[in-house]
Design a protein that fits this description.
single chain; 152 residues; Alpha-D-Glucose-1,6-Bisphosphate, Chain A, domain 4; 7 strands; Polyketide cyclase
Length: 152
């Protein structure tokens, strides 16, 4: 698994609230371009996000499924990314105190689990996954901190 982490300037519950709103995923997940639907039970295990990846007009419809959810702490997903296959993505949240403020250390771990993406050697695919996940965490922080600043 490839790991990347970032401190987000809000409490873990506020990060969890963003992760629980499946309609927000295209705002922070690199590559996700639009949501088509979100299962009513998201983020319960088995629930799915129905999304599209790519850039218009070259969009591919795909899904992401919850494998495990520990509210406020952990979300484990299987993300399908045709034509490359599927990946397991784990988001871990840990509360910390920095300068008297409660913040969240978000760690994202990801690697390809099936499909042609496995043919790409780990030393080649790992830097690309880490770069994408670093940007995903940057965007997630902006969404979480922006919502907190506006009281959303």
């Amino acid at each position: 698994m490839n790991h990347c982490e970032r401190v987000v300037g809000v409490r873990p519950g506020q990060v969890w609230d963003v992760l629980c709103d499946g309609w927000l995923y295209p705002l922070f997940v690199v590559g996700a371009s639009r949501m088509r639907s979100v299962d009513r039970t998201w983020p319960a295990p088995g629930a799915r996000l129905h999304h599209s990846v790519g850039a218009w007009p070259l969009l591919v419809d795909d899904v992401t499924e919850v494998l495990e959810a520990e509210p406020g702490r952990r979300l484990r997903l299987r993300a399908h990314g045709w034509p490359l296959g599927a990946a397991e993505v784990v988001l871990d949240l840990a509360g910390e105190h920095h300068a008297g403020q409660e913040v969240t250390r978000v760690r994202i771990s990801e690697d390809v689990t099936s499909g042609p993406g496995l043919l790409v050697p780990r030393p080649v695919r790992s830097p690309q996954i880490r770069w994408r996940n670093a940007e995903t965490l940057r965007r997630l922080a902006l969404v979480c901190e922006g919502r907190a600043a506006t009281g959303s």
